[in-house]
Design goal:
Layout (H helix, E strand, L loop, with lengths): L1 H17 L4 H5 L1 H15 L5 H9 L1 H17 L3 H17 L9 H10 L9 H28 L17 H4 L3 H17 L3 H21 L11 H26 L1
Helix pairs in contact: 1-3, 1-5, 1-8, 3-5, 5-6, 8-10, 8-12, 10-11, 10-12, 11-12
């Protein structure tokens, strides 16, 4: 799944740049993501005809994912289309992965020279896949979670306001934007280390830690119009989608 690994690196880098609070950096997200995809592919020795065609063609869904998800998060609607582009491209790259060349090239030579402690005897394509999944879980996972939250009405699009409401659950539980990537990386890391059971402790701990905050929202005047039901829905939907992203990533490494 070398093609998927390289593509996920490009998508993850683009989404990381989109999260930066700078218009100039966000504008460069797609070009840098595309350059990352092509550049890493070439460094990994993916220089065959099929490799070049696949990597070049993968730029189209990368651009589509960024454009559709950005529009959906700002204006609402089109959530399914954005997720279909992301998922469809990933499935297509996996389905055609048999045509990919074996990852090697300058990247493999550098890894052998550097003698990285975590590399060991792992093939380059697997290390690339793990790296791509880690990068994607940092930012792309957040975009996926936000798309689902907006689609079910648990979070409003950034370009819209709701009359008569001064705040919403996402205004109160802002830590989820940081906790989400952290928990996904933690779950993925534990899974790769063979400690899948320990990952369940992370999930249980999050619920216990968040419970007092969720309970306090019931009578909190700062969340006008949003009671415990709305805040709990926001928390549960966001958490389960985040966990599914992490577990799906872990499944790909298997």
């Amino acid at each position: 799944m070398t093609w998927l690994a390289v593509w996920l690196l490009g998508v993850g880098v683009a989404d990381l740049l989109r999260a930066v609070d700078s218009r100039l950096v966000r504008a460069a997200a797609v070009p840098i993501g595309a350059v990352t995809t092509i550049g890493v592919g070439l460094l990994a020795g993916l220089t065959g005809a099929a490799d070049l065609v696949a990597l070049t063609a993968s730029i189209v869904p990368l651009v589509g994912w960024v454009a559709l998800s950005e529009r959906s998060l700002r204006r609402g609607g089109g959530h399914a289309e954005a997720l279909l582009v992301l998922g469809g491209a990933a499935v297509a790259l996996v389905a055609a992965s048999g045509f990919a060349s074996t990852a090697n090239g300058p990247l493999a030579e550098w890894m052998a020279w550097a003698d990285l402690p975590f590399a060991g005897d792992e093939p380059v394509d697997r290390l690339l896949l793990v790296a791509g999944l880690f990068v994607a879980n940092l930012a792309t996972g957040n975009v996926i979670v936000r798309l689902v939250l907006v689609s079910v009405g648990a979070m409003r699009p950034s370009g819209r306001t709701r009359p008569g409401r001064e705040s919403e659950p996402s205004d109160r539980l802002k830590g989820g934007r940081l906790l989400g990537p952290m928990e996904r990386i933690f779950i993925l890391g534990l899974g790769l280390a063979g400690q899948v059971t320990a990952a369940s402790i992370v999930i249980a701990a999050k619920g216990l830690i968040r419970f007092p905050e969720l309970q306090s929202a019931k009578d909190d005047a700062t969340i006008k119009g949003d009671g415990i039901d709305q805040v709990t829905e926001y928390f549960l939907v966001g958490s389960f989608v985040s966990w599914l992203v992490a577990l799906g990533s872990l499944a790909l490494t298997r």
